[in-house]
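Can anyone check this?
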Amino acid sequence: IPDSVTSIGAWALGGCSSLTSVTIGNSVTSIGDLAFAGCSSLTSVTIPDSVTSIGDSAFRGCSSLTSITFWGNAPDIADYVFWDVPENAKIFINSGATGFGGTLEKLPVVIETKTTIHLDGEYSNGKDVEKTKSAIVKLFTHFPQGEIFYTIDGAQPTFTSNAYLKPFELTESATIRAIAYSADFTESIEAEPTTVTILPTYWLTVSTVGGGNVTIDPPNGPYPEGTEVTVTAKSEGVWEFIGWAGDSSSSEATITITMDGAKLLTVRFRLLTNYSMDVSTVGGGNVTLDPPNGPYAEGTEVTLTATPEGEWDFIRWSGDSTSSEATITITMDEAKVLTPTFGTDVTVNEIGAGKVVQTPSNPVPYGSTVTFTAKPDIGHYLFRWAGEQKGNRINTVLLLLNTTPSSEEYLVLPLPTSMPVSYTH
């Protein structure tokens, strides 16, 4: 099973009667329930030290299984894992392995005839291992009262090399080689060499200037050499992120630092300028602002909505916007002055033959002077105006729209344009 596999699911290979042996890859951490159950031709299985759990009945009914090898410490083993395997089956473990007793599910546990190297409690024979700061080395042998000798420079170990008396700490990179001798020095077994790389660690120091904070991921140093650390600056309140100084000059709020040495970063924030928003209305209506309370920090986007009241209509904005939309958004890059103008319709009743031309047309903005021009049809003349211009007999009249509109107040009535013109021949 290749190292790319990380788990073996339930019934993954169950019932594969032609499977005779299996070596599980070094990335597998779990073996599921009944994963190999009923593999009747399976004679041997090797379980790496990466495996931490074996599910219920994982090897149940493997009627030819006689050799079960564990390279590491005992994993979490469920019930009936080796149920119905042959009585002569044996479980082989490394010297120094922990968690095993004299038997496992009534099968004898046998220590392999080998010398083993353990780093920080993990079986490490033949491996390339990276450690941070240091590693504790333990050496084991299956020889009763045997003696172990070792080197840490990759040299061939002999009985003249360093004698192993107790666990020791490595603080620098090394290649560990070890050999064990029987008590009478008539037998020896050498372990597969183990290469240990001790990674140096470095501190990341971050300070802030102004109002803001920093998040660091991963959060806790010191960091092993080569670690990529993501640092994010976040401004607070009326402060704005400017950029980084020190071991980065980026203007991006989020940066990634590769720890190839001690790093010093300073994040800088500046206080935003506050600007006022002056809003006044012309005519009948009101304005809502979101956010509602100024002054506003530089760069703030403020949404204004003009709402007419009663008979009024929204016309347009003036000042720092000339939009005809009732809702606008203003970016605060300086003090702003805005005025929404509301207007209303002026009612003209035409009686008789003719028409009235109104300038400007409806709705008329508040404060405007409206011009009304009576244009009788041919053979007719303007008799007089009624309403606001009552009694006026000129064709063109003016009206100042400066009060709240009502049903009568802005009534303009030319009367009657239907009076015929008499001609004498």
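Reply from J.R.: I decoded it. Residues 370 and 399 are 5 Å apart (CA to CA).
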